[in-house]
Design a protein that fits this description.
Jelly Rolls; 4-stranded antiparallel beta sheet; homodimer; alpha+beta; DNA-binding; about 260 residues
DNA sequence: CGGCCAGTTGACTCGCATCAATGTATGTGG
DNA sequence: CCACATACATTGATGCGAGTCAACTGGCCG
């Protein structure tokens, strides 16, 4: 792994020059290791840093007054955890690990410096935020208007699509290290019902799950059942990048 | 209204100089009017522009295969609709009006220019995106893990808090021009059940709704019932602004 | 006047929660 | 190597919250 995860992630949006890669690399220094089951921060903790994910899986969550829990994001390598708290002094959610992980803290004020030094990266970070919104949006639809079967199917397809972007895997078989009670908390279902639902999905020969692994048996039919369209995970920055090029050839002070 | 809505909105984050106000004002030119019940765009339409809201209410939505609908955001004056599509070529949701409105289109490539001309505005736009994420997050919690009573109560308090930020109103009485079927679509409930739930809330003397108007009878108890904490709507940019000041006094090329 | 839309109310249904029992794998200390 | 505890998953029985269908009301408008 010569290039950091975050550089590989950002490269999927646009070509980066050496200075930009260096800036991004500087966000992924001095990794800290945490064991599976560890808590990185709790809701309300002071939010001074972001974390880039180098290795492993994490999730963010919120505990409710009645003790139940809502899981809000799943983070995989290349993601940045905490971007949301750019505008807040305290953490809006907790963050905990699903596997052993390596993550790298950088102070959120560093962001401001990046904005000052690279117009391209300003745009890309904004694009990342937009993409995160799109994912949340899709999950809202999922929670609001779908059956348990669709929720589970949709979630699996979302993770499948996100993982394929960076890691290609054959035969639609991949690791998904979320126990069923975490899946339930992500989808607004009970762990019991998640178990039943996987049963149904296997019965229908769409999908099967064993331990931490998923095999998708029929992607097309699964997508149809789930009402899954992958458009919200396929960004298109071409118009933005074109605007950047045009701008680059204008005299520095011109406003257009 | 001598200053545009968007300037007033952004001023709640930080002081702006004349150039920055001018840049923002330039995003709110040539307003277009739409009648209540109008559609601004549909899911899948080409996404070339953002819209700033000058007057009136709008909502974004997604239709499902089975004909049901999920409402995703409510927009009020000062908001910007479409920021999410910065990274996408097509609209992720539809956008329609709840009242007569005036909105102003600006091309999304204009964003790139703004990033290039004002470091403060770069930061503020990123903060706005972060805040939007926080709102979506809270709504996820709301949809995933709450009862109908809590959902309705929470939604009302969210709107109440957002509106109070710019418009102060006495006696906890305000306009909320969403018919019950739209509320239902926002909260993942049927219109019928929304009606029943408002009945319950009135019975409990927490809240009453008449036509397009809400009166909150007991804010504290309502917030308790809803599990509502307003922290997610109270941004704190102090650390970011401090970073900007420090940066301003450094020599231009220094990276720290 | 009649049609339409928003809201209310009641009867019935159903999806998923909850509770409980059981099974299986993994880990720990004596 | 066994006794025990813990985490995760599966399965069945039962109940409740909210959806659905339908009838009815009142206001608005042509």
């Amino acid at each position: 792994m010569d290039k950091s995860c975050i550089v590989r992630h950002f490269r999927t949006y646009a070509e980066l020059d050496a200075h930009e890669e260096e800036l991004l690399d500087s966000l992924e220094k001095s990794p800290q290791a945490f064991r599976r089951g560890g808590v990185i921060w709790e809701e309300g903790d002071e939010a001074t840093d972001f974390y880039t994910i180098r290795r492993g899986w994490l999730f963010s969550y919120r505990y409710m007054e009645d003790g139940s829990r809502q899981v809000l994001d799943i983070f995989v390598p290349g993601d940045i955890a905490g971007l949301r708290e750019f505008a807040f002094s305290g953490r809006l959610t907790g963050l905990a690990t699903l596997t052993d992980v390596e993550i790298c803290a950088f102070p959120k004020t560093r962001m401001t410096e990046v904005f000052g030094e690279s117009l391209l990266l300003s745009n890309l970070f904004f694009a990342v935020a937009a993409r995160e919104q799109a994912v949340l949006l899709e999950r809202l639809v999922n929670l609001g208007r779908r059956t348990a079967l669709q929720k589970v199917a949709h979630f699996v397809l979302e993770m499948y699509t996100r993982l394929q972007r960076t890691n290609n895997f054959p035969d639609n078989h991949f690791r998904l290290p979320l126990p069923q009670h975490v899946l339930g908390d992500a989808l607004g279902l009970s762990a019991v019902h998640v178990s039943r639902t996987f049963g149904e999905l296997k019965e229908a020969e769409l999908l099967c799950r064993d331990g931490g692994h998923i095999s998708i048996l029929d992607v097309d039919r699964l997508a149809q059942v789930a009402g899954f369209k992958s458009t919200y995970l396929r960004e298109d920055l071409s118009s933005v990048l074109r605007a950047l090029e045009n701008r680059a050839v204008l005299p520095p002070g011109s406003t257009g």
